[in-house]
Write a structure and sequence with these properties.
Oligomer: single chain
GO cellular component, one term: TAT protein transport complex
Number of helices: 6
Radius of gyration: 51 Å
Helix content: over 70%
Structural class: mainly alpha
GO molecular function, one term: protein transmembrane transporter activity
Main location: membrane
Keywords: Cell membrane, Membrane, Protein transport, Translocation, Transmembrane, Transmembrane helix, Transport
Membrane topology: Single-pass membrane protein
Number of strands: 0
Order of helices and strands: HHHHHH
């Protein structure tokens, strides 16, 4: 424990017996034992507090690093950012929808169809196609 062997321990006990006396030696040993057990209990308590504190510090460190990571990514900023001028310059202007020329071409096609004199009766070529099938 302290590097004291059996011969050294015997010498210490003999000196203690001569100094304290045989009547008080058992009381002294009892008090010494209680003091050592109290000292051991206190050191164990301090060790557990330090290890709990170390665990708490580790958790705080992990929490801080997680918050730094989230702040560096800035998810809210990614979602809320308006497009930059560069992004707007890269995008083509939206094409204007011109409905009037389309309507005009439809009207023209409808007039041509009506003027061509289409009838409900099929042409001679249509009749030949149906008979060959």
């Amino acid at each position: 424990m302290f590097g004291i062997g059996l011969p050294e321990l015997m010498i210490i006990l003999v000196v203690a017996l001569l100094v304290v006396g045989p009547k008080k030696l058992p009381d002294l040993a009892k008090s010494l034992g209680k003091g050592l057990s109290e000292f051991r209990r206190a050191t164990d308590e301090i060790k557990s507090e330090l290890s709990d504190n170390q665990t708490y510090q580790d958790i705080q460190g992990i929490k801080d690093s997680f918050q730094e990571t989230v702040e560096s990514v800035k998810p809210q900023a990614l979602l809320d950012t308006p497009p930059s001028k560069k992004d707007q310059a890269d995008k083509p202007e939206p094409a204007e929808v011109k409905t009037q020329p389309v309507e005009d071409s439809l009207d023209k096609t409808a007039k041509e169809f009506l003027e061509s004199g289409s009838s409900d009766e099929p042409d001679e070529s249509d009749k030949a196609d149906k008979t060959n099938v």
